[in-house]
Amino acid sequence: MAHLRFMKHPRFNVNIHIFLSCALFLLPACEHQKGRDYLKRFPRIEYGCDYSGLQDGVSLKVHLFSKQDSKDYFGSTNFGFSDKVISEGFLPIHINISNDSNSAYTLRPSYLDLLVQPSNRVAKVLHSDTYNYVTWLTLPALMFYWQAIPMLVIPMGLNMRRSNQKISENLQHNALQTWKAVTIAPYETIDKFIFVRPQDFKQSFILKLFNEDERKLITFNVDLVCGVEFIEPQSTPSSAARTKAAKGGISFSVFPRSS
Length: 259
Description:
The protein is an alpha+beta fold. It has two domains: 1-41 and 119-175; 48-116 and 176-259, Immunoglobulin-like (Sandwich), CATH 2.60.40. It has helices at residues 2-7, 10-40, 67-74, 119-126, 130-144, 148-174, 239-247, and strands at residues 50-55, 58-64, 76-77, 82-83, 91-99, 105-107, 182-184, 189-196, 204-211, 216-223, 226-231, 251-256. The strands form four sheets. It has a four-stranded antiparallel beta sheet with strand order 1-2-5-8. The protein has a four-stranded antiparallel beta sheet with strand order 7-6-9-10, with no helix packed on it. A hairpin with a 2-residue loop joins strand 1 (50-55) and strand 2. The longest helix has 31 residues, at 10-40. It starts with a helix and ends with a strand. The relative contact order is 0.18.
């Protein structure tokens, strides 16, 4: 019975209240803020590993994200050792198109010589695990402070769910969709993410834009000034390697390409 008397001690209750309040208040707030950032900002293309081209008053810039770029923008897991996107088998490519002409241009997924992945698949790996979060915080709340369930656990779980929905909406806005064309109006600049599987990535690929006024295509032969080194699984992979391969996650590194 001594442990029950200790649990009823006021100092023990204060510590439990502080722990639950901090855990439930701070973590969802971080996730929610990060979800908003996906829509608000795009990284400026100021890297050595990119492509830049100009045709008929339209400029195209392309940047292949490294693992560090992915960490900086999409966040990290495993205490900062892994990024959230590339480690799950999605390679982000950022394209910037500036239309300084008097004509509108259209970019369709079929105009891109890459196998583009739907943004909702990428959004899933960025979502918070609401179910486990609520479950594992409900258990100590039931033991020590059940009032935290309606006051904090449920509201914070709903907040995480809204954050996940926001991330999905933001990536749908920011990424090139497999089912939707994008129009670049005269004197407009757009930024889009393209997500591809590492095994589908091509260092040199074609991107076309359709001139709506002149009814013609312009072609950019993108050749990234970098390479990707793939590390194939061993002939007898471990269970972790098999799981990673099932996700499409092939290990690789980005490096400057020699001329």
